[in-house]
């Protein structure tokens, strides 16, 4: 693999041993690896070159990794994997809610970590929008309220035809709901039917993904027009939805 074709990863961790371990292991897998011990160094790297994926410690010494991840997400579309030594459910939910695409606890298995990184990069590459944002008329699409969900290209376009970034889990969840307007799904059913949701997710992860989708497609996420909550039962997508 040439230098030009190598994916660039940025490791953000204040533990020097962890940074050295990840840099060595990931370099051996063919990646270009940059490292940062704090947010300042992270931003210098992000501004200096194109980064394909960020691995970020949830608990940095003087900074909140969740806030950094959220700030990165507002400016960049690359996948973010959170790393943490604390594995309680609250941390995982917060990481997902604040823009992480995946999550691993320390100590982690290097083989599993590299496999997940590869999967995130593959998904990111497959989800990259075209330069024109043009919707192919031969594609299977769902139309609702000015939005177009392109099921063939797995893209979401807003009312102006602009591409809206969705993670794999967000797209898969929206696909299930929009394909069955006015049908109530329990959280368990959504996990089962959404191909993009990891088999290890739990009920509250669905709630977080719903929250993130509402922020992206609803004019007012607090009073959603499309994704409705049926208290005690689950969620449903309020139609009409037109197929073409």
- State the helical fraction: 25-40%
Please state the structural category.
alpha/beta
**Total number of helices:** 8
Fraction in beta strands: 15-25%
Shape descriptor:
elongated
Q: Could you spell the SSE succession in H and E letters? A: EHEHEHEHEHEEEEHHHEEE
Largest sheet: 5 strands, parallel
Mean model confidence by pLDDT: 84
Q: Low-confidence parts, pLDDT < 50 over ≥5 residues?
A: none
Radius of gyration of CA atoms, rounded to a whole number: 19 Å
Structure description:
39% of the residues lie in helices and 19% in strands. The protein has 244 residues and is an alpha/beta fold. The protein has a five-stranded parallel beta sheet, sandwiched between helices. Strands 9-8-7-6-12 form a five-stranded antiparallel beta sheet, with helices on one face. A two-stranded antiparallel ribbon has the order 10-11. β3, α3 and β4 form a beta-alpha-beta unit.
């Amino acid at each position: 693999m040439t230098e030009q074709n190598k994916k660039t990863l940025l490791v953000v961790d204040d533990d020097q041993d962890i940074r050295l371990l990840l840099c060595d292991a990931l370099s051996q897998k063919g990646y270009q690896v940059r490292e940062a011990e704090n947010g300042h160094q992270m931003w210098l790297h992000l501004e200096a070159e194109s980064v394909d994926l960020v691995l970020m410690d949830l608990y940095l010494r003087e900074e909140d990794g969740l806030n950094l991840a959220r700030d990165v997400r507002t400016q960049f579309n690359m996948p973010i994997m959170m790393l943490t030594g604390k594995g309680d459910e609250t941390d995982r939910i917060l990481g997902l809610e604040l823009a992480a695409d995946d999550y691993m606890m320390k100590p982690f298995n290097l083989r599993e970590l590299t496999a997940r990184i590869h999967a995130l990069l593959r998904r990111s590459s497959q989800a990259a929008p075209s330069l024109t944002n043009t919707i192919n008329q031969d594609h299977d699409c769902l139309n609702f309220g000015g939005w177009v969900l392109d099921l063939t290209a797995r893209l979401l376009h807003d009312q102006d035809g602009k591409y809206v970034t969705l993670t794999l889990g967000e797209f898969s969840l929206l696909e299930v709901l929009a394909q069955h307007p006015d049908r109530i799904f329990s959280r368990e059913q959504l996990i089962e039917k959404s191909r993009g949701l990891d088999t290890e997710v739990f009920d509250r992860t669905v709630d977080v993904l719903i929250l993130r989708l509402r922020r992206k497609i609803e004019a007012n996420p607090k009073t959603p027009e499309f994704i409705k909550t049926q208290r005690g039962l689950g969620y449903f997508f309020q139609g009409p939805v037109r197929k073409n």
